[in-house]
Design goal:
The complex is a heterodimer of chains A (about 230) and B (about 240).
Chain A (H helix, E strand, L loop, with lengths): L4 E4 L4 E4 L3 E2 L3 E4 L2 E4 L3 E5 L3 E6 L11 E9 L3 E5 L6 E4 L1 H4 L19 E8 L7 E3 L6 E3 L3 E4 L5 H5 L4 H10 L1 E5 L4 E6 L2 H16 L6 H14 L1
Parallel strand pairs in A: 3-7
Antiparallel strand pairs in A: 1-6, 2-5, 4-5, 6-7, 8-9, 8-11, 9-10, 11-12, 11-13, 14-16, 15-16
Chain B lengths: L28 E5 L7 E7 L2 E12 L12 E8 L14 H14 L11 E11 L4 H15 L9 E8 L2 E4 L3 H6 L2 E8 L4 E5 L2 E2 L3 H31 L5
Parallel strand pairs in B: 4-5
Antiparallel strand pairs in B: 1-2, 2-3, 3-5, 6-7, 6-8, 8-9, 8-10
Chain lengths: ~230, ~240
């Protein structure tokens, strides 16, 4: 492992000097201290720690998979696997001429439905505002939901999408990954679906292993022959 | 407090204590991180004969809603002793002592956790003492800090805790149950090792100013020993042992 990357726990000094603290680090005097369990990365002028644990914290423009938990006459509430509930206003689905009298929200999305959504706005004062009015967003009609730890989503995607592309190609499945750790897999063949689900769970369990891509590849191929 | 009369020899002429330890030696410490599946973070500690399990949930919704704070997240701690944790059955209802320790541990963890990143949420820490043998608050605090790190709650530093005290007119590290009952003073210390800051300091007993200084110094050294064990627990779970 290259010496710019290091395993750290809260309180560990990552480095000292004129660096910009980015993710999961704080500046204390001239020392940069990690605030979480993870892997530290030092760039030319900035330092960050990739967390290996923790809940999903919404970020603007993240693609998430949400589950409808309830609705009022004006909006839906979505479980996005976070400490905050996602807020989806009715105008987003019905358009500007939405009327609380004429339109029934449950005609579009019912409690329990899964949706692919994007975080439109989020700050510390309000619950995250969610939108589904974009290409590839909206209600998910078919597929299987796999839940993984949100901190392992980058591992599942891999470098420039290498891991997820490999799983998709080997199984002919279409996989939608939400940044909140919920993944929807849809596939024509039941074997492909099972294999893709198994591969995703394998990444979740063995995220810390170095040559994971090869191991997943072996698993996908070996099952294909039997 | 002069200490209760006892027939037990707390410190013999060779400087060996009633359980065979030297004056600057802690009991055997073992911490394991991530032992519970359903909690967001967890830890188990064995500190001598103390056995304590800690589970952490959160950040999550605050119930009842009126407790939530729009500026910051809140930390809630429950320290609880099992009825079978002591020799005579303990009533499972929270006692005056348990309520105090819950508060003290909460206040010892608060300087470390950065809950201002999660307004309107709560982090719950549940501490269950399975077996008690003196110094449970320090052991519980050390385990709680590992469980919080395991849950991924951002923290400025770990909090390590260890007690020191005065037994047979000598300052000793890590007071056990017998020494606590018969000794002259007991001082639990919570310490953030990287920031070099004390987050918990209690004192039961009478010390001279010199003894007080010595006691803090000895206790802080004990915390550093505990910190190494905490580090190992997290390294074992997340990176496999031996790598750093």
């Amino acid at each position: 492992m290259d010496n710019r990357r290091k395993y750290v726990i809260p309180g560990d000094v990552v480095t000292s000097g004129p660096f910009r603290p980015e993710q999961n680090v704080i500046l204390e005097g001239n020392k940069i201290i990690s605030t979480t369990v993870g892997i530290s990365e030092i760039y030319d002028d900035s330092v960050r720690v990739i967390s290996l644990t923790g809940k999903y914290i919404p970020k603007i423009d993240d693609l998430v998979i949400g589950k409808v938990i309830s609705h009022t006459s004006l909006s839906w509430e979505l479980d996005i696997n976070s400490c905050y509930v996602g807020f989806l206003p009715a105008q987003d689905v019905f358009g500007r001429d939405f009327s609380a009298h004429a339109d029934e929200l449950s005609s579009k999305l019912k409690t329990g439905d899964l949706v692919a959504a994007r975080i439109a706005n989020f700050d510390r004062t309000r619950d995250p505002l969610i939108t589904i009015s974009d290409r590839d967003l909206g209600k998910i009609d078919s597929g299987a939901l796999v839940k993984i730890s949100p901190s392992k989503v980058p591992r599942l995607i891999g470098k420039r999408g290498s891991m997820i592309q490999m799983i998709e190609q080997a199984t002919d499945a279409a996989i939608t990954i939400g940044q909140n750790g919920w993944v929807v897999v849809s596939c024509e063949s039941p074997e492909g679906l099972l294999k893709a689900k198994k591969a995703i769970q394998m990444v979740d369990e063995k995220a810390h292993i170095a040559n994971l891509t090869d191991q997943v590849k072996d698993m996908l191929e070996s099952k294909g022959e039997s | 407090m002069g200490g209760r009369d006892t027939t037990m020899v707390l410190l013999d002429e060779n400087g060996i204590r009633c359980d065979g330890r030297k004056i600057d030696e802690t009991r055997k410490i073992m911490i394991k991180a991530g032992v519970l599946k359903n909690a967001d973070g967890s830890a188990y500690i064995e500190f001598g004969d103390n056995k304590i399990l800690v589970g952490v949930f959160g950040p999550r919704d605050v119930h009842p809603k009126h407790m939530s704070d729009t500026d910051t997240g809140i930390l809630r701690v429950r320290y609880h002793m099992e009825p079978f944790s002591v020799t005579e059955r303990k009533n499972p209802a929270p006692s005056r002592r348990e309520i105090e320790i819950s508060k003290v541990i909460k206040e010892a963890l608060e300087p470390a956790v950065m809950l201002e990143q999660f307004p309107r949420t709560a982090v719950d820490v549940f501490i269950e003492v399975l077996q008690a043998d003196g110094g449970t608050r320090c052991a519980a605090l050390s385990a709680a800090s590992v469980a919080l790190a395991d849950a991924g709650i951002p923290m400025r530093d770990m909090v390590a805790a260890c007690a020191s005290g005065k037994v047979a007119d000598t300052i000793v590290l890590d007071v056990n149950n017998e020494e606590d009952q018969a000794g002259q003073a007991d001082m639990p210390i919570g310490y953030m090792p990287s920031l070099e800051k004390i987050t918990l300091l209690q004192l039961d007993g009478v010390l001279t100013p010199e003894e007080y200084k010595k006691c803090v110094e000895v206790g802080v050294n004990g915390c550093k020993i505990v910190y190494e064990v905490q580090k190992k627990a997290l390294n074992d779970k997340y990176f496999g042992s031996g790598k750093d």
